[in-house]
Specification:
Layout lengths: L1 E2 L6 E2 L4 E2 L1 H13 L8 E8 L5 E8 L7 E5 L2 E5 L1 H7 L3 E6 L4 E6 L5 E2 L5 E3 L1
């Protein structure tokens, strides 16, 4: 794998990003005045929810040194090594509809999810 020239982690495709997810995230980042060439969306896993683990997302101005970095459709996604153990191979999508809109992680590692889809177990 190649090292990202901007100084953070490795550049790879451990997480797939759909065009709609990238478009929405880049739009949100730009509306907050963030530099989309350096900053990105941090995708992580945290303890919580009725199934044990839940996804978290936030914008970061730059990656951490040991992050895995995925860059697709103009969006950089940062994932820390511990979270990568749970979400490697996942797809980040953005869905919009009449009842709800938001980012969704399609994770092939999930063995069980809670009824509301907010938490999971691997």
């Amino acid at each position: 794998m190649s090292t990202d020239a901007s100084g953070g982690g490795e550049l790879d495709t451990a997480v797939t990003v759909t065009p709609s997810a990238a478009e929405e995230a880049v739009s949100l980042m730009e509306s907050e005045g963030m530099d989309v060439d350096v900053g990105g969306l941090r995708l992580f896993v945290q303890q919580g929810g009725c199934a044990g683990l839940s996804y978290g997302m936030r914008f970061d101005n730059e990656p951490e040194e040991d992050d895995r970095i995925t860059e697709q459709h103009g969006l950089r996604v940062f994932v820390d090594p511990a979270s990568m153990n749970y979400i490697g191979g996942s797809t980040l999508d953005y869905e919009s509809g009449l009842q709800a809109a938001g980012f969704h992680v399609e994770n092939p590692n999930v063995e069980a999810e809670c009824g509301c889809g907010e938490s999971f177990r691997t």
